[in-house]
Predict the 3D structure of the following.
Amino acid sequence: MAGYFSYFPKMLYDVEGNGNPKVVTDILRRVVSRENTDESFSALAEYNIANGETPEVVSFKVYGTVDYYWILLLVNNIKDRYYDWPLNEQQFEAYVNGKYTNPLDTHHYEITQSSGPTSSVDDSHLIQVNSTTSGALAVSNYEYERRLQEQKRRIKIIPREFIPELIEEFKNLVRR
């Protein structure tokens, strides 16, 4: 199975500036997932990333090969696999403790919105408010970062039967 960069065009590049160019992969090409990916692929499934799962592990579990890890990243618009992908527990603890002097300090205050949905999986029913707002609850730095991690755990998966079509489209886009 071909890897991600195998689809990129090759070019001559004089790395040393000595008039002796070498064939290199043009890694400066960029392809991003469409804004309306959810509508384009109505068959997208949700997947909840377990603690410690890497893109390669998820690819193997879902597609039977590690070779499609890049498809998971592309479809979910993950640009930085280390911070856009959920951290494992040990990494998360180190990250929070390194980012905040006191992880238990208040990050912000929030209340449940009074109209529309009043519960949600992704906490979108909560709105940030001033500390003086009636009923406002404090959210710690730790809880704020934990919520961000939980949001990162929910990704979209393209069904296996669409993979060849997606790869073909990717090849055409990257070679333009």
